[in-house]
Amino acid sequence: MDLEGLAPDHRLDGGDLDCGSGLVLLIREHMQRVPEGGVLELRSRERTVCDDLPPWCRMVGHEYLGQLPGATDVEKRFFVRRGAAQAVAAEVAALADDKARARQYEWRLRARSTGGMRTTAYCRNFSFTVGQPASFEEKDEHPSAVEVLLGALAGDLATGFFTACARAGLQVDDVEITARAKLVNVLAHLGLEEGDPSLESVVLKVFASTLEDETKVRAVWEETWRRSPVAMTLAKATRLDVQLSTI
């Protein structure tokens, strides 16, 4: 089949997702917009999709047509023809089941401390060490819990923003985020007086290295912000001040 001359009925940018981290759910969702016998074009930068997509198509009743190079060295374009009516009905049911399981999914972590102002956290195939709750030293052996929290926020937003820009077709070379935080009452955390030890505010400065139209970049940032689980959770508890600059 001449894939170069093929006009897909619908396109999906899968970004860096693999089939086990939400890509299959997205494919099923977007396949509903393709007529029976129509073609979905999937663009992906994840190398494992080459091996995982063809057998998945055979399993669910769609026809895998092949692949072409994408817009960059790491991107590929995959073409899938939507299956017959019975396959479509099965996919609708599978999509509903995937969404139900996604809504019930829980992230789990186990933490253990044996003293020495440090705790080891275990999740999936990872482990990392967290130091004291909040440190005022210039150097420590391990990051404090507050620093881990800020790192999770900045990491969530930086990765999400970079990926969302790529999906929107915007060329961004680098994303850097600086984070600063203050407690309402540091002395309450130290047990020196009664008060509120929570975060008073978090200030984020986001720098995106890009030559793209700033209005488009800011629109993608706003979408990233609204979809961030860590940012939306912290926004309910404290004041988040965010400044975005394109450079």
User: Percent of residues in beta strands?
Assistant: 25-35%
- List the helices and strands in order: EHEHEEHEEEHEHEHHE
Task: Specify the number of helices.
Answer: 7
Q: What's the CATH architecture name of the largest domain?
A: 2-Layer Sandwich
What is the number of E strands?
A: 10
Provide a descriptive summary of the structure in words:
With 247 residues, the chain is an alpha+beta fold. The protein has three domains: 10-104, Translation Initiation Factor IF3, CATH 3.30.110.40; 106-143, no CATH class; 144-246, 2-Layer Sandwich (GMP Synthetase, Chain A, domain 3), CATH 3.30.300.20. 36% of the residues lie in helices and 29% in strands. The protein has seven helices and ten strands. It has helices spanning 23-31, 49-60, 85-104, 145-167, 186-189, 214-227, 229-235, and strands at residues 10-15, 39-44, 63-69, 76-81, 110-113, 119-123, 126-130, 172-183, 199-210, 239-246. The strands form three sheets. It has a four-stranded mixed β-sheet with strand order 1-2-4-3. A three-stranded antiparallel β-sheet has the order 5-6-7, with no helix packed on it. Strands 8-9-10 form a three-stranded mixed β-sheet, covered by helices on one side. Strand 5 (110-113) and strand 6 form a beta hairpin. Helix 4 (145-167) packs across helix 6 (214-227). The protein starts with 9 loop residues before the first strand and ends with a strand. The model has no long low-confidence stretch (mean pLDDT 91).
